[in-house]
Amino acid sequence: MSMWMITIGSDPFTQLKQRKRMLIKLKMKHNLKYWTIFIFIFIMNSGCSNAKLHPKARQQQADSYALAGSLMQEKITTGQFILTTYHRFDGVDKNKDLTVYIEGDGMAWLGRDQLSTNPTPLYPVALELASLDKSASVLYIARPCQYLWPKITIRSCNSNYWNNKRGSEEVIVSINQAISIIKDRQGMSSITLIGYSGGGGIAALIASRRDDVKKLITVAGNLNYQLFTKIHNLMPMNGSIDPITVAKQIKSTPQLHYVGGDDRIVPQQIASSFSNKVEVIAGVTHTSWAEKWETLLTDIYKK
């Protein structure tokens, strides 16, 4: 049996041994692809069928979260990309503050040497968090090329944008432009940025370019690419702007960086290298934020 496969349907003891062998071998690798492969295989063996991996199924899952949160989908055309957004606006919002959620990196890899043809997330954590937010004005922005099924090749969707250029200048400019389009159209006066995982770094970079950011919140945010790649023995993220380069610039911006106590992907030291405004949430992994989110939102909006 290949080290890249788990026998679906085998007994739990056999599966456990296979996973342990895989993890030992994966720890010896020095490329982000192998981490992604492990996560992908684990999901597959946990009941995620091929049908659920289809872009259409991923879109339907996103739509279900959006429906639960009364969020409407809209495609926003920017200078470089067409971005998928979901939003909800209250016309009588007195605070005039737009809460913006930015999604993580999504599903970048399918195999050891195979990039995904569609980076749409298997589990859109930021979208689920947005659906739980009861603020009057909420905007969710997917990363470039996510949720564009079935026409993934549309407008600049080169696979580099979910690989080494996921945090490139054109990505930052495009997402920032989408925020401005919605903010101006709705007549908002300020924004609260909330970025999940890779979207946390994007949020920090956007905050450094705006003067209307009321608050910056990151959730399991990758805020230091250089340190992240060092911790995991990965290749440098050439083609992307490292968020750590703007840490001093936005030091005066009100901010809070949440870290999961059980997060083994983006550990606390990454957030701590960026800011001293860090809060560790016990028992939370890289993706299990939803059950804590409504409580955390109460604290966010109080501060």
What is the string of helix and strand elements? Answer: HHHHEEEEEHEHEHEHEHEH
Report the principal-axis shape.
Answer: globular
Number of domains: 1
Q: Name the strands of the widest sheet in spatial order.
A: 1-2-6-3-7-8-9-10
**Count of alpha/pi helices:** 10
* Number of DSSP-assigned strands: 10
Please give the alpha-carbon distance between the first and last residues: 53 Å
CATH topology label: Rossmann fold
* pLDDT < 50 stretches: 1-21, 23-48
Question: Mean pLDDT score, rounded?
Answer: 84
CATH superfamily: Alpha/Beta hydrolase fold, catalytic domain
Structural class: alpha/beta
Which architecture does the CATH hierarchy give at level 2?
3-Layer(aba) Sandwich
Described by strand count, sense and barrel closure, the largest sheet is:
8 strands, mixed
Approximately what portion of the residues adopt beta-strand conformation? 15-25%
- Which CATH class? Alpha Beta
Cα Rg? 19 Å
Estimate the helix proportion, in percent.
Answer: 25-40%
